[in-house]
Amino acid sequence: MTDSKSFTHVDAQGAAHMVDISGKVPGQRQAIAVATVQTRSDVIQLIEENGLKKGDVLAVARVAGIMAAKRTSDLIPLCHPLALTRVSVSFQLDRENGQIEITASCAVQGQTGVEMEALTAASVAALTIHDMCKAVDPSLQINGIQLQEKTGGKRGHWQREQNHADS
Amino acid sequence: MTDSKSFTHVDAQGAAHMVDISGKVPGQRQAIAVATVQTRSDVIQLIEENGLKKGDVLAVARVAGIMAAKRTSDLIPLCHPLALTRVSVSFQLDRENGQIEITASCAVQGQTGVEMEALTAASVAALTIHDMCKAVDPSLQINGIQLQEKTGGKRGHWQREQNHADS
Amino acid sequence: MTDSKSFTHVDAQGAAHMVDISGKVPGQRQAIAVATVQTRSDVIQLIEENGLKKGDVLAVARVAGIMAAKRTSDLIPLCHPLALTRVSVSFQLDRENGQIEITASCAVQGQTGVEMEALTAASVAALTIHDMCKAVDPSLQINGIQLQEKTGGKRGHWQREQNHADS
Amino acid sequence: MTDSKSFTHVDAQGAAHMVDISGKVPGQRQAIAVATVQTRSDVIQLIEENGLKKGDVLAVARVAGIMAAKRTSDLIPLCHPLALTRVSVSFQLDRENGQIEITASCAVQGQTGVEMEALTAASVAALTIHDMCKAVDPSLQINGIQLQEKTGGKRGHWQREQNHADS
Amino acid sequence: MTDSKSFTHVDAQGAAHMVDISGKVPGQRQAIAVATVQTRSDVIQLIEENGLKKGDVLAVARVAGIMAAKRTSDLIPLCHPLALTRVSVSFQLDRENGQIEITASCAVQGQTGVEMEALTAASVAALTIHDMCKAVDPSLQINGIQLQEKTGGKRGHWQREQNHADS
Amino acid sequence: MTDSKSFTHVDAQGAAHMVDISGKVPGQRQAIAVATVQTRSDVIQLIEENGLKKGDVLAVARVAGIMAAKRTSDLIPLCHPLALTRVSVSFQLDRENGQIEITASCAVQGQTGVEMEALTAASVAALTIHDMCKAVDPSLQINGIQLQEKTGGKRGHWQREQNHADS
């Protein structure tokens, strides 16, 4: 899993810059990222019960995640602006463990990958859940924000090793 | 630590809205949030060595976190716009464990708290580190995004219980 | 209902500027605006049926309207930035007439009113419905974007005359 | 005029997402949208007289509409980001009926249409006129925000039926 | 004119942060900034002639400057968000010398000054003129972006020394 | 160096619009812009000394300039949105003359040039330095914001004439 030991965002003098992707071949690129919201069983139940009625907590978080994906290059200083062709955000509720697993998936036809877009979507969806639940669980935690899989680009397909994800 | 069992962002019909804070007394409010970047020892070393020269990875992440705090209400749908009076983001590097602990602190003179602003600052700083390190460690993880402490408001001082933080 | 015959956004030389509100007394101000989406009965039925399951069209439009209210001064050149203390957006479906009536309500403690914030929220919620329904009804129309009521400020309470609203 | 009865923004489970346009063929796409500002004759006269001097009300509204078109995907949650190649906004004043007809036209070389961009430009131009005239006519109304014509894409040319537009 | 020799944006460890203004007394603060566009006589004539008809170059630049002032804290990393109460941008054309002098003025009731807001308004107005004139004068220069005067705050009134401005 | 005498941003009726670039051939385009910050020797020394430690003033200004380049079409009303493929900002300190020369360089594969992106990056980097130094030198000036060189597009290579730059 080790990669080349240099920071592509830092030039020869050590100064930050937005790296040159002019020479890269445009292609179809996709990325999937996840995040886990750790709260309590009763909070998951509250979300589910409201969900049975109008599903609002997850609906708001989904919209927030999708909109954040589109603003990634506005938030992360050295990210390239990208015309995303697809964004989706989904949720898996685990009442027993008081968890919500968030999965964000992005695609683009472009010269660079969409890892940061998927990670940003998952993170902002998680922060939105935090915001809407913080009155009932101020101790809520967000964990495991990580890239799960990506396709396209020079390096081709990359998938997270399971044991690393579990550590 | 249990709080009232209702979602303040959801009205009587279960629809999302930005809750009314008109009646709240303005006051000095502060919040501290943290996040942990989990990478490898050699990546921390790379950051430190660049840091000894120009410190750019952390400098860029710090700026990104501060700017994101100011855009919180633009990202999190039901957050109120706030005129922050202070934002700071700091980093603690742990080379042995391959970790960076991020601490974000915000303050406002206003009618609602700055928890989401501190959490957003810590999250975006972490995502920026992820962006700048992903070429060398695509498996990098962000964990433990959580509120650490807050002061001000009707409920007064709140501090994270240590055992909960460790779980 | 006639008011003073001068444009407050235009100075003595006829040039646009953001008018000086420094001298105004801060106070509680509220505004309610409406908009009507005109589509077909079968489209309303589609929205309702989805709504019975997840309510997504209206949930997305509601979030869009709330977020747009917070960005009003970023969109309308001469609007003052305001720290809104409340925003809500609600919908009334009329299947028979193929209509959705949108009502947006905003409040602030400040030196100027929130009419534009409420109007922007209603407009962007309507545009979002348009976006989500345009594949099934490209002829969809948005009508009657207007202020319904406002309170606070030097002029006090203002309410739309009913016959005018009907014209 | 009836189209397929399904919401392209809603996936199989009824959850909102930004639909996949990866497989669409890029092409030249254009759209024209309109909106009508309904005010009073004397307000139109005021705008015209200022217009004879500096034309500011319409000039400000035109800039606001053009800038809003570029921010459409930032406002409408499920819109794709697009690199617009042309935006124009024009006005037709009708003093007798106290009306301003706004026409917005957009073009892109891309995989999806620019209907929402044209509709957003017309809407924000109308809201800007509302803002600048609300001191003299708080009852001002915005009507008839609708797509007039579009070209490009799989379905080719679409034009509004006149009788529908008049209804 | 010399001030204390320390950077208020840099903390004890030399790291950037948004300085704490919580303890400052809110008050009325104003600032005036200027910028000079240096082009050719014939370009000024073109602007004036268009100006006699519709005044668009200056009207667009004025709107751009006003809108930019409101986004200052979004552009300048360590600036505090401020609810501006007034912004104006004016132009003085000097055909003989091929110059446009831009003056921007801002006000706020707040805990920190509006120097950066006025400077940003003047700069973006100048950049907008550059954009609109670059086809006829790609060599156009922007000079003398500087603070002219400010009032309010602990240090009270400050005015630029004329000889310094001339240097 | 004289060019065609017409404003491409102004249509036949003199109204502003975002010009049609649909017919332009996409190609590799680059631009370099500069700006000069004029302050005092002792301020440059302060920046350098902090720079020897953490380099923060320049690091913050660099990030601000890069982020601003990506937001150019959001700030300059008639600029087209562009997916920049490269942005860099560098600084040359001249302690003797109390100056900082800023150079910004941008590239895109597109239908229009990146002059405004490079000029915006240089300007916002300069404004950020102004912000961070204004407590020690409120008289600081920004001069010589200008295009230095551009390549690509119908007109091909353009380079600033040296004597003009010196005037």
From TrEMBL, chains A, B, C, D, E, F:
Quick one: which pathway? Cofactor biosynthesis; molybdopterin biosynthesis
Reported EC number(s) for this entry are: 4.6.1.17
- The name under which this protein is listed is Cyclic pyranopterin monophosphate synthase
Keyword field contains Lyase? yes
According to the record's subunit comment, the protein's assembly and interactions are: Homohexamer; trimer of dimers.
Give the GO molecular function terms.
cyclic pyranopterin monophosphate synthase activity
Free-text function comment from the UniProt entry: Catalyzes the conversion of (8S)-3',8-cyclo-7,8-dihydroguanosine 5'-triphosphate to cyclic pyranopterin monophosphate (cPMP).
